[in-house]
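Can't paste images in this forum, so I'm doing it all in text. The chain is below; anyone willing to post the predicted structure tokens underneath?
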Amino acid sequence: MADYKQLLAQELKRNFGFDSFKGNQEAIMENLLNEKDTFVLMPTGGGKSLCYQLPALIMEGTAIVISPLIALMKNQVDAMRHFSEKDGVAHFLNSSLNKQAIDQVKEDVTNGVTKLLYVAPESLTKDENVEFLRSIRISFYAVDEAHCISEWGHDFRPEYRKIRPLINEIGVRPVIALTATATPKVQHDIQKNLGMSDAKVFKSSFNRPNLYYEVRTKTSNVDKDIIKYIKSQEGKSGIIYCLSRKTVEDLAEKLIVNDIKALPYHAGMDGAKRTENQDAFLHEEVDVIVATIAFGMGIDKPDVRYVIHYDIPKSLEGYYQETGRAGRDGGEGQCITFYTNKDLQKLEKFIQGKPISEQEIGKQLLVETAAYAESSICRRKQLLHYFGEEYIPDACGNCDNCLSPKTLIEAKEELCAAIETIIALKEKFKVGHVIDVLKGKNTNDIKMYRHTDLEMFGSMENTDAKLLNSVIRQAIIAGYIVSDIENYGLLRVTDLGRAFVDNPVSFRIVEDRDYSESDQEIQEKGGTTCAVDPMLFAMLKDLRKKIAKKLNLPPYVIFQDPSLEAMATTYPVDLEELQKIPGVGAGGKAKRYGEEFIELIKRHVEENEIERPDDLWVRTVPNKSKQKLAIIQGIDRKIPLDELAKSKCLDFNELLEEIEAIVNSGTKIDLDYYLEEIMDDEDLEEIFDYFKDSESDDSELAIQELGDVYSEEEIRMVRIKFLSEYGI
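Text version of the structure:
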């Protein structure tokens, strides 16, 4: 192999102004200059792009860079032109160009001016492009964001599977594949599909020591929590990721009306508007971009100071890549994720309807994400283990779990039982089945496989399933057990695990965190998400109970717990302030019950000499009322709800959420015309009586109680009827 060290150093200084390489960059470039296939695993901010940009400038011919996003190509081309005297040094070829622009690109490539040509995989498949590329001298192929090849990758793109056959058709040259996130399984997929199994692999550490990782409980106050956090980070750039376009739009609007410089970004927006918003963020005209995962791939903004996940991502690879956009300059990077396992249930619903193999892959990725979110061990240790890297210290000191550690408990006996069960099951089952055997559950699968006959069946009957889950998760990280991701998470026992059973030693673990609790449950345990006054909260509950008893109504009809919690935090002392409390509004509730609550709060504040906080009053979005007004008018005209949902481009569940919000804000809704059409009087009365007698209006609880007989939609609609008649 030729030695290119001196040449690379000279050209690095001349073209990019740098005096030295980072990490593996120099070795990667040498390998490519020697025309060898090269596989690069390097975290976001590690300098992947330079690994192919500099060799492209040195080598004869044009490098073909296959990239998944038009926005990413534009950024890369603009960056390269900034370093060169000739604009033609880099071009992209995609569907956004007109014929004149395409002709200019081809002319520059043919004349040897262009050293890097960025193309989308879809563009490669066009016959005219294949014919053109066969006629030019190609230095090498660079496959950027190579994880898109794998079904196990977080941005799977079927078009990426066609890259190798197209390379063979155009003309074989060296290939460099690059990605910021790849588990061993994804790495294997990439190399296999690109026909580069013999490639030299350069793997940088995935550890980003400057990033702080935290998972917070997602409550009904999540928007307020986010606004408070952003206001505490004044002048800093941040990205908020949401799963749905609707959430992106709604949250961006809410941030704007609360005086935060923010813009939305998602694939459903007009392309020009999307680019305009992205540029506004890059040029620091706004502080926050609220986006779906369509935003960020390859975005070169080094000083993003925080990345917030409004919803838990679908995979740990997605999470790692998205959080990796924080602190790329090595400075502060806060990665805050809001999590409730209800979000996982929503994600599981999205998977349904896909081919079985995709469903299995999707479920396994969600299992890994849940394990990360709910675990109490060092988050950095878990992330690096997922990517096949061992993090030796027990604590990183820069994540929520390390900064607020939980007490260790001894789990030697539980681990022995788990390992013995996995061996007895011949290493052919996943975590859930192993725990079901240990707990002695008579599920259909256990009956079918006759696992009730196993000696270990029911051996941990009195042990909490959540604890057993923690034991297995932490045993995987400790190396006693392996979750075989290539076989959808089947558990296998390592040699270390077998040795442990023969000679057990202490195995101390931390229990998982619980993110399944409702706001009410958190409050009752005294673990509120805000600075609630427990004495006032108890007094407010007593007053509510007294009023409810006098009116012969369930207490929640007066005010729900989150409303009382907010009162016990912000101490409203007049009607105007009370109306700002969530679930109170300016309607009948404030006027009917407000005075008694205000008087109680006033008295408490005076007697205890409480200095009322200048709390953040989150303003609501004015133009959201247009949608709500249209829904109210549609119901007044007795339009069937399914037709109303279609006319507003909502699914039925989203329409019910809108109607519930309308009722919670103090507006009566009459659904009788629709309920009478779809339900029997007796059924309607039974659900109605349930809410009348229940101490909680929690629809999830009602669905658990009544769901075997009635649908979720029926229960929610009758709840709306009940609250309209009694709660307003």
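The longest helix spans residues 588-607. Confidence is low (pLDDT under 50) at residues 517-530.
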